[in-house]
Write a structure and sequence with these properties.
With 128 residues, the chain is an alpha+beta fold. Helices cover 16% and strands 45% of the residues. Strands 1-2-4-5-6-3 form a six-stranded antiparallel beta sheet.
């Protein structure tokens, strides 16, 4: 498993890669109290989005991949302590653009799904 992108990402906050194979990735994240928005342990959706985005980037698996757009749906709430698994599949590449379908599950329950539009750039986005 050779991950070519997002090498310094915080795996506790955005997930740990389990599998990278062609245009497919599987990333796992254990939700923690740091992610809670209130005393019930409800996980902030931004962490779930971060997991999904991380999975999309790894499915493309290019050193200079960036997110251009996303259309997402949060389907069920997530509580601290639950283990989420994101699966991403990159579609056909059209120039620098590639669509990536992502689902996030808590066990068998789908809690998030989205379509991410990624771009692979010739050089890092912060390098002129």
């Amino acid at each position: 498993m050779d991950v070519l992108t997002h090498k310094k990402i915080d795996k506790e906050l955005c997930g740990r890669p389990l599998l990278v194979d062609g245009n497919y990735s599987k990333v796992e994240m254990v939700t923690t109290q740091k992610m809670a928005v209130d005393e019930t342990g409800l996980v902030h959706g931004g962490f779930i989005f971060g997991l999904a985005d991380h999975s999309a980037m790894i499915a493309v698996n290019h050193p200079n991949v960036v997110l251009g757009a996303a259309e997402v749906k949060f389907l069920k709430p997530v509580k601290c302590g639950e283990i989420l698994v994101a699966e991403a599949r990159a579609g056909k590449k059209e120039g620098k653009r590639q669509s990536v379908s992502v689902t996030v599950k808590n066990g068998d329950a789908e809690v998030f799904k989205g379509m991410f539009i990624c771009f692979t750039l010739d050089k890092h986005v912060l390098i002129n």
